[in-house]
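Lecture notes, continued. The same structure-token format from the folding unit now serves as the input rather than the output. Read the line below as a description of shape only.
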């Protein structure tokens, strides 16, 4: 199968502070930046190492290949996203409205603050083979299932009245539609605008509650 040609996305972010990073952290930061700006197929190992001020041999001390590096940075940011989302829900109490709002706020805040990581994770994952993608897909399903669980609780408690899909209630489809909306804030949101990250997160949380017909 012919792999797609990646789109070019200009990402304005500050250069990594080389002297404050351990080598592996510098490599990961440079890889995120290079892949976001130029696309995975174009970037070479030499480009990454030059960007972080390390020798090419330093990369192979930590990663066997560029593929392994791409998998590492996507899997690491995905795993952390799963962790913070579950933590937010666990600390929100028993009300599904509070749980959904907490989930959306932390999810959107992370996608606003870590735009480079989100862009790479969602755009460049297609260059990984099926074996490397498996654990990332598992984490994404786990996040989706958290949302489905919140929606189910809200419906069962009479607090949510989400729209029907083909005459039936499909909470998985609703969860996927909502997650797609929250994820793509990283495609257009930039710091320094008229809406701060915290306000943006609250806006998305409010829209999510309205979308599922949450009662006041």
């Amino acid at each position: 199968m012919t792999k797609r040609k990646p789109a070019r996305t200009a990402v304005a972010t500050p250069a990594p502070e080389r002297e404050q990073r351990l080598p592996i952290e510098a490599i990961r930061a440079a890889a995120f930046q290079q892949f976001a700006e130029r696309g995975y197929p174009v970037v070479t190992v030499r480009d990454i190492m030059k960007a972080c001020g390390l020798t090419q041999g330093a990369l192979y001390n930590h990663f066997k290949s560029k593929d392994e590096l791409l998998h590492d940075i996507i899997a690491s940011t995905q795993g952390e996203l799963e962790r913070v989302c579950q933590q937010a829900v666990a600390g929100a109490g028993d009300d599904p409205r509070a749980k959904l709002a907490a989930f959306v706020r932390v999810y959107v805040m992370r996608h606003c603050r870590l735009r480079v990581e989100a862009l790479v994770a969602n755009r460049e994952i297609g260059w990984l083979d099926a074996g490397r993608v498996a654990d990332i897909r598992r984490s994404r399903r786990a996040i989706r299932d958290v949302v489905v669980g919140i929606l189910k609780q809200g419906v069962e408690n009479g607090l949510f009245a989400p729209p029907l899909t083909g005459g039936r209630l499909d909470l998985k489809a609703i969860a996927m539609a909502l997650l797609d909306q929250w994820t793509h804030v990283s495609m257009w949101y930039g710091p320094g605008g008229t809406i701060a990250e915290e306000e943006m997160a609250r806006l998305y949380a409010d829209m999510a509650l309205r979308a599922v017909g949450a009662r006041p």
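Point for the exam: Residues 1-10, 12-20 have pLDDT under 50 and may be disordered.
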